[in-house]
């Protein structure tokens, strides 16, 4: 419904919500909050492929109040093109909230290209120095 949309915020700030999840995208960062309280860290896999982040959780049968239950979920979110994919982070809080976030690169910079060293190759034979 309309209440899902955050009102009174800068237009650069968007919020999408569903049952047990929320995505926030503003000028500086992109954040996914996901309620994964039924899963332990080893039950979860988070991977980025192209412009999508995939979050997968699965645990085998465990006993709860009503018997045995196994759970699995699979979520896929599109990353904004200006998220710096080299600086993504993911954390799991004590109360079972998974937070996946990535800073956004300010316009004018290329997103996702982290600084890298360029090796200097050496020629084997010395270049012929001009004879004086």
C-alpha-based Rg, rounded: 23 Å
Largest sheet descriptor: 5 strands, antiparallel
What is the molecular shape?
A: elongated
Distance between the termini: 83 Å
Q: What is the tally of helical segments? A: 0
Strand order of the largest sheet: 1-2-3-8-7
Low-confidence stretches: 1-5
Order of helices and strands: EEEEEEEE
What helical percentage do the residues reach? Answer: under 10%
Strand content: 35-45%
**Helix-strand category:** mainly beta
Keywords: Acetylation, Chaperone, Cytoplasm, Eye lens protein, Metal-binding, Nucleus, Phosphoprotein, Zinc
Protein name: Alpha-crystallin A chain
InterPro entries: A-crystallin/Hsp20_dom (IPR002068), Alpha-crystallin/sHSP_animal (IPR001436), HSP20-like_chaperone (IPR008978)
Family: Belongs to the small heat shock protein (HSP20) family.
Give a quick rundown of the structure.
With 132 residues, this protein is an all-beta fold.
Description:
The protein is an all-beta fold. The protein contains no helices and eight strands. The chain has strands at residues 14-18, 21-25, 29-35, 44-49, 52-64, 67-78, 89-92, 97-103. The strands form two sheets. Strands 1-2-3-8-7 form a five-stranded antiparallel sheet, with no helix packed on it. The protein has a three-stranded antiparallel sheet with strand order 4-5-6, with no helix packed on it. A hairpin with a 2-residue loop joins strand 5 and strand 6 (67-78). The chain starts with 13 loop residues before the first strand and ends in a 29-residue tail after the last strand. Mean pLDDT is 82; it is low at 1-5.
């Amino acid at each position: 419904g309309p209440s899902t949309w955050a009102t009174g915020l800068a237009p650069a700030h968007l919020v999408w919500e569903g049952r047990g999840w929320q995505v926030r995208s503003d000028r500086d960062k992109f954040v996914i909050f996901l309620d994964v309280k039924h899963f332990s860290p080893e039950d979860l896999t988070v991977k980025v492929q192209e412009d999508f982040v995939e979050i997968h959780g699965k645990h085998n049968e465990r006993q709860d109040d009503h018997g045995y239950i196994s759970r699995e979920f699979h979520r896929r979110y599109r990353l904004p093109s200006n998220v710096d994919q080299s600086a993504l982070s993911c954390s799991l809080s004590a109360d079972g909230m998974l937070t996946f976030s990535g800073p956004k690169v300010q316009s004018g910079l290329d997103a996702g290209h982290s600084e890298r060293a360029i090796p200097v190759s050496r020629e084997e034979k010395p270049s012929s120095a001009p004879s004086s």
